[in-house]
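Recap slide: Two-component system response regulator, sequence and predicted structure.
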Amino acid sequence: MDAMPQAAPAKAVDGSRLLIVDDDAAFGQRLARAMEKRGFVTDVAESAQDAGHMAERNPPDYAVVDMRLGDGNGLEVVERIRRRKPDARAVILTGYGNIATAVTAVKLGAVDYLAKPADADEVFSALTREVGERPEPPENPMSADRVRWEHIQRVYEMCDRNVSETARRLNMHRRTLQRILAKRAPR
């Protein structure tokens, strides 16, 4: 597969269209409000299919796309957006990061790959960073225990706080999960 053209340098965002694609509706709406305060005109899609239709009708200048969507893969959404608008700048968000998907995301034209939970400042910085400009390393990177705890919490919320279903998805004993959930978040 041919590599997509590189994204253009960051430009002024006033009035630029931003497509946010995340199957967590509350997160998508919060991020949309935060990005509107920074000058974007936002659209929110909760599925790969909706995002694809939006990208076909009116390709965005910028996109923030969750890696795992209920009906597809965020990488496919980025690829579709970049086909319609090669200079679009996309950022992938994921709670399931690994090196292979990060490399694939960049090859498909994403300008950055951020781990959830990412705040609006991190997303804005990634979207507007100049090509070739390197991000600052985190001041306080999360410990491995904290990353694990965040992942468990996310799966727990995806399962509507159902301990048995969460334990099944995490391949973990229910009592072990209950003990983890009862503790405070590690630093």
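The chain has two domains: 17-128, 144-182.
Strands lie at 17-21, 41-45, 62-66, 68-69, 72-73, 89-94, 110-115.
(End of recap.)
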